[in-house]
Write a structure and sequence with these properties.
The chain contains nine helices and nine strands. It is of the alpha/beta class.
Length: about 250
């Protein structure tokens, strides 16, 4: 038997064995290492943990950061169960699943002296902005949308995560462009108000990737399905509270 044929046969045997293994999430005790990017960690992971607490209390998560290098996360070697975020140039041994597309909106302080219930292009370009800096090529989508509409943005401060943005916007006259799900959470903050951008800034993909060896593993399949349920729930809530598009 040739080497490629042997590998295919071995993979088929692995799949058959894994497919016969039972996995009971309610009784299982297991640690999964996952690598979410900053957006997923802020928005989706808390909802995932809440579900785990109810349906699989013995399942624990360990988070490792996902920046722009898939190899560093451990997903390429299989030491990490999965990676969540925007998957750029995945290797051949990874399976990639598209989860959803996320839009963008603007956040300013509720009593902003110049901004009412809508924001004009001129106001957007006159204001100073808080910029959230995702690593590497993940910045490309927003920058391309701004360039396409020839929309200028005067960045006063750039930060590396979402956690401090609300506090900065609440005490300044600055504006921040944020993912829609984060904006939806911030609508409960009385210090802030959320507005559509003056132009359509498009969307960015949220994806999940895992090593091919885990494609039929019952425990891994269950975890991926649970993440899919969380995403479906978010999609439903987003559709119910969708913001109007800019005129």
């Amino acid at each position: 038997m040739s080497l490629p044929g042997y590998r295919r046969t071995a993979a088929q045997l692995d799949d058959a064995v894994l497919g016969q293994q039972a996995f009971d999430p309610a009784q299982a005790e297991r640690l999964f290492t996952i690598a979410p990017n900053g957006y997923v960690e802020f928005v989706l992971v808390p909802a995932l943990v809440a579900r785990l607490e109810k349906v699989a209390p013995g399942i624990k998560l360990r988070l490792t950061p996902y920046g722009n290098d898939l190899v560093e996360t451990g997903v390429v070697s299989g030491t990490t169960a999965l990676v969540l975020g925007r998957i750029v140039d995945p290797l051949d041994n990874l399976v990639v699943q598209h989860l959803m597309d996320e839009g963008l909106a603007c956040a300013v302080r509720a009593d902003h002296p110049a901004i009412g219930d809508a924001m004009t292009r001129e106001q957007f370009e006159t204001m100073k902005h808080v910029n959230i800096v995702p690593p590497g090529r993940m910045r490309a989508g927003l920058f391309q949308a701004l360039a396409q509409h020839q929309l200028k943005r005067d960045v006063a401060i750039s930060v590396t995560n979402f956690f401090a943005v609300a506090e900065m916007v609440a005490v300044t006259d600055y504006c921040a462009i944020l993912p829609s799900l984060i904006c939806r959470r911030l609508t409960h903050d009385p210090r802030l108000k959320i507005l559509p951008a003056p132009v359509d800034l498009g969307s960015f993909p949220v994806e999940m990737a895992w090593h091919v060896r885990y494609r039929h593993d019952p425990a891994h399949r269950w975890l991926r399905a649970l993440i899919g349920e969380v995403i479906t729930d978010f999609k439903g809530k987003t559709a119910a509270t969708a913001m109007p598009s800019p005129a």
